[in-house]
Amino acid sequence: MALITPSFGLIFWMLLGFGLLFFILKKFAWPFITNTIAAREHRIESQLMEAEKVRQDMANLKSEHQVLLVQAKEERDQILADARKMRDKLYEEAKEKANNEAKAIVEEAKKAIHFEKMKAMTDIKNEIANMSIEIAEKILREELSDQNKQEALVSKWMDDVHLN
Amino acid sequence: MTYNKRGKLLRVILFAFLAAIFPLNMQAGEHNEAEQGFNPGEFIIDHVIDSYGWHIAGEGDKSISVSLPIILFDNWKPVVFMSGKFHHGHAAYKGYAIGFTEDTKGKIVKLGGSDAGYTGHLEEGHTYIIDNQSTLIDISITKNVFALLLSIVLLCWIFLHVAKQYKDGGDNKAPKGMAALVEPVILFIRDEVAIPSIGKNKYEKFLPYLLTLFFFILINNLMGLIPIFPFGANLTGNIAVTGILAIITFFITSFSANKNYWIHLVNTPGVPWWLKIPLPIMPVVEIIGIFTKPFVLMIRLFANITAGHIIVLGFISLIFIFGQMAPALGYGISVVSIFFYLFMGLLELIVAFVQAFIFTLLTALYIGMAIEDHEEHAEAHEATEIVHN
Predict the structure, then answer these.
(1) Do B224 and B117 lie in a common domain?
(2) B206 and B80 in one domain?
(3) Segment B248-253 long-range contacts (CB within 8 Å, at least 24 positions apart)
(4) Is residue B1, in this structure, part of any structural domain at all?
(5) Per the domain annotation, does B227 fall within a domain?
(6) Which of A27, A111, B122, B353 is the most buried (most CB within 10 A)?
(7) Contact B241 A25 (CB under 8 A)
């Protein structure tokens, strides 16, 4: 039957044609196609791996950042605390110094006042002495006509002077 | 050889249901066809088998055909002419004619005796003598050979074009156009057929053959489904074509087989000893098996594709059978026929892919079984069994 009887011509052309097709495709088509596909797959795979690595790095970097941030915050707090302490200390010191100075000034003033007072007293004393002398002179001139009286007076004043 | 009106009853054995519906009554000469009406059996077989010209439309002497080259080697002397000279089998040319008796039907014969070198119409009732003495080698470009060459040109064009796209694009570009069309299929053959069947380390050597095989069967299956010239030849439903593909697979399997494969044939492991000695039952089964595998490959593709064509042609025949009874009936049934034709066409589209895939997968499995290492044996065997079921 024609349906299941292979004909020689078709076998011949089939062998020749399919052989030729296989040869052409194997030589000029399949290597380029399959190699390029494989290379592309390889490339995509390596790029995905690289991306994964970068992602990992980024995550690491982020956590590093976090740590740094926390550290920086701590440091800032520390610095602020230190500064506050320093400020308080300086304030205390300045206050003490000011107090001391004020005290010293007051002391000085007191001394000066005392000194001035003493000086004034001395002046007054001197003045009083001078006036006394003048007054005494005048009285003496009046009274010293009598010798006895003079002596008695002198001794009396001398006692008075002592009393002062 | 007598050219006469005596009808010969020829039953189509291969497809019993068709034979039951349409008892085939084939005529020796086509002259009688018009008188005796439409013969679906002959119509279907004529469209499924190979022919020297490419019939397009019409019937008998009024038919329109594309003339294809006839190439003969008559006693190693080349003879070339166009098939149109045969006038659809009704004429002889330079002593060559298309045979019409049962043993020579459809083949080119050389006329001998007083008719040697005869050119002209074949007379009815005249007895022609065939020259059996001279060697006649026929490598004509028949319908199937033409389809084969066309498919080869198409495949070369497609894949050289794709290869160029890849060459130009490099591995840095996504596939475009034709490359995008074939790349998933190539990946499918590589990842789902070649690698699981043959193994990751050895598949590369066989991939070009598997790819060529798959695309060759696929494109010819698809071309066979297009009913317009220059497509529609039943190439992958031709036993010579599927046979050659099966034989190539057989040779590749046998020549790449390792020692294990041959040892397993003679001394199958895991089988009771009394199946091997004294009667070598298992070795005989195994050795028959290496031949049945390609044989089954050949039959499966041939039968599937031919059956598809026959069913489609059967539906078309229905229109003419009913049209002969009454034209209105023919028009009426054509609606049903076209519906079923469409349904079968879609089914055949799936079959085209499935058969190409199965042929390639089984080839890959046979190669894998022939080159596998001892440890992998059980696994691959299981896989084959599943596919066979």
Answers:
(1) no
(2) no
(3) B248/A18, B248/B209, B249/B213, B249/B294, B249/B297, B249/B363, B249/B366, B249/B367, B250/B290, B250/B291, B250/B293, B250/B294, B252/B206, B252/B209, B252/B363, B252/B367, B253/B290, B253/B293, B253/B294, B253/B363, B253/B366, B253/B367, B253/B369, B253/B370
(4) no
(5) yes
(6) B122
(7) no
CB contact (8 A) between residue B245 and residue A18: yes
Out of B45, B148, B211, name the one closest to residue A30 (CB): B211
Q: Which of B71, B152, B240 sits opposite A20 (nearest CB)?
A: B152
ipTM: 0.82
Of B108, B141, B174, the residue that ends a domain is B141
Choose one of B126, B141, B156: the last residue of a domain: B141
Q: Which residues in A lie closer than 8 A to residue B172 (C-beta atoms)?
A: 40, 43
Rounded mean pLDDT of chain B? 82
B81 and B210 share a domain?
Answer: no
Please give the pLDDT value at position B19: 35
pLDDT at position B11 over 90: no
Nearest to B49 among A3, A15, A20 (CB): A3
What is the count of structural domains for chain B? Answer: 2
Q: Is B18 a member of any domain?
A: yes
pLDDT tens, position by position, A34-68: 999 999 999 999 999 999 999 999 999 999 999 99
Tell me, what's the pLDDT at B31? 43
pLDDT of residue B39: 85
Tokens for B378? 């059980």
Residues B185 and B279 in one domain: yes
Q: Are the beta carbons of B152 and A36 separated by less than 8 Å? A: no
Averaged pLDDT for residues B81-93: 84
> CA-nearest residue of chain A to B140?
A9
Residue from the list B187, B245, B306 with its beta carbon closest to the beta carbon of A37: B187
Confirm whether B57 is domain-assigned.
Answer: yes
If you average pLDDT over every residue of chain A, what do you get? Answer: 89
The model's pLDDT over A22-38, given as tens digits with 9 standing for 90+, comes to 999 999 999 999 999 99
Contact state of A17 with B148 under an 8 Å Cβ cutoff: yes
Instruction: Tell me, yes or no, if B190 comes closer than 8 A to chain A by beta carbon.
Output: yes
Structural domain of B218: 144-388
pLDDT at B22 over 50: no
